[in-house]
Design brief:
Layout (H helix, E strand, L loop, with lengths): L9 E6 L5 H12 L2 E4 H14 L11 H7 L5 E6 L2 E6 L2 E2 L7 H4 L2 H5 L2 H14 L5 E5 L2 H5 L5 E6 L2 H14 L6 H17 L12 E4 L5 H17 L2
Parallel strand pairs: 1-6, 1-7, 2-6, 7-8
Antiparallel strand pairs: 3-4, 4-5
Helix pairs in contact: 1-10, 2-6, 8-9
The structure holds 2'-deoxycytidine-5'-monophosphate.
2'-deoxycytidine-5'-monophosphate binds next to helix 2, helix 5 and helix 9.
Length: about 230
Amino acid sequence: MNTTTQPLITIAIDGYSSSGKSSMARQLAKTIGYRYIDSGAMYRAVTLYAMQHNMISDDLAIDEQSLIAALPEIDIDFQVDGERQYTLLNGVNVESDIRSMAVSNRVSPVSAIPAVRHALVKMQQQMGQQKGIVMDGRDIGTTVFPDAEMKVFVNASAQTRAQRRLSELIEKGVATTYEEVLSNVINRDHIDETRAESPLRKADDAIALDNSTMSIEEQNQWLLNLYNDTIANL
Ligand code: DC
């Protein structure tokens, strides 16, 4: 918890898939005693809900009307258990299910539906009302918290990101290949950047970070330095 007298701020960390933004964001939140919210997990949870209710066909067509009608029934929350944080979908821990390739392959079209975005943006804004929050995603600095005191936009090459994602998936025992992960990363970049509703883009006042050649420790230090500078210059 935040035990200092530092003012509480809002921290928005956006960027490309598998750019390492979630790990950086989570670590910063832990170091400074802030709440961490992985907004991508929320889009993944809605996608899982749609899959569980047969709203996505094998050819990835989405029954948008049914999904939009079901939005009020979808409750998403996070549970902190020591070092770990789990995503809850209607009270059920779905943390491992939402990381599957099946969800990864369907989440971008689901997150392009304007009504889904409106519902989740509203939930995210409520979560950030008290400040003292680090949220990562695609549109946090542009749409969710346009007034955030600290904004970062993270990128790394698609190859670097695919390699990182592959290592994570292998560690979790998910069967996949580098080619499959690279194609998923490139495809999601494309959908995220070209969707009509709040596409992935750097906010004008966000600080860009390309972490292709940085170690995890270097990124964490870079982010902590930026936080300290931001607080010092409020
Ligand atoms: O960060 P992630 O890879 O877990 O995000 C999963 C998907 O959710 C990603 O392909 C785009 C979408 N997303 C989004 O549209 N807006 C956000 N704020 C976060 C994620």
